[in-house]
Amino acid sequence: MSRRILAACIAVGCLGALWIAAFLLPVPYVTYKPGISLDVLAESAGEEIVQVSGHKVYRDDGELRMTTILLTGPDTDVSLFDALDAWISPEKAIYPRSVVYPEGQTAEQSQTESAVQMLTSQDFATAAALKALGYQLPHVVEVYSVTPGMPADGKLEVRDQIRAVNGAPVDDAQDIIDAVRGTAAGKKVVFEVNRKGKPVTAAIEPRLVDGVPRVGIVPGDGYVFPFSVSVNIPEEIGGPSAGLMFSLAIYDTLTPGSLTGGRIVAGTGTIDGDGTVGPIGGIQQKVVTAEEAHAELFLVPAENCADALKAPGNGMRLVKVTTMESAMSSIKAWVADPAAALPSCEETTND
Known about the structure:
There is one protein chain. The chain is of the alpha+beta class. Helix content is 33%, strand content 28%. The termini are far apart.
């Protein structure tokens, strides 16, 4: 073999190795693809997803399906091949990692944040449903999460309602933050909480983290409910985007008759305690997920309408929603007349 041929072979081999490395080396992106849908009116692991204690329930026909997406985590490597596949595929999407995850966020931190968002979405959904039924709900500050290994671990629990700190009544989460940061070194913060209807007192000594006193809890807004409502879904599902569907399922469970008329309705959207629906990520992938579940109607937050219309193979009615009330009105009108005029995403794009 001549030197020229040998050099050419080496060059081709090196070029091939470079191409392989380029396709296998990670790139700073996150990929989205359709996930699963879950009928919130159904059972999971042999138990009803919406569970109520202290109020009559109505288990009727029909489905209210929350939709999910599968996205790569902050610590997951995405290859150039994966990125190109997501960019080309009409059912997938790709975004810069910095747009989806804060700088330096770990997978554990992301999971904790997602779990907190899921917890708050369930509380807000319950509040929105009960307010729609005419209930007046007192506001409280509750524990959203407790960090393992931190001072509050074993002393405070998720959903503890914080009534007072160091003897001072608590009106909002900032009161707790100020009390902890204002505690002198070596001193303890005294929490007075309501835990499942019983008063509990916990004295906790803060720990300095990055120079700031912390006890290791995330406090936030909560409500005092007249009876117990819980939404039990698999732990691996997190985030706030199922809030709207939770609220509708809770309302349907607490009222006679089928809200959907025995048919399949899917949707997405965050919700606050007053029933306002907010936008979510991955709307196009969620439309695909809903179609695969044979949903006939899909509830879309108004701000997501333009992107929802870009989803491939859309054969459902995409209904624009701004509140839980508007979502219920559209569902009821559609059940009464499937051809009824409803607020549509198409109208949004023409505004």
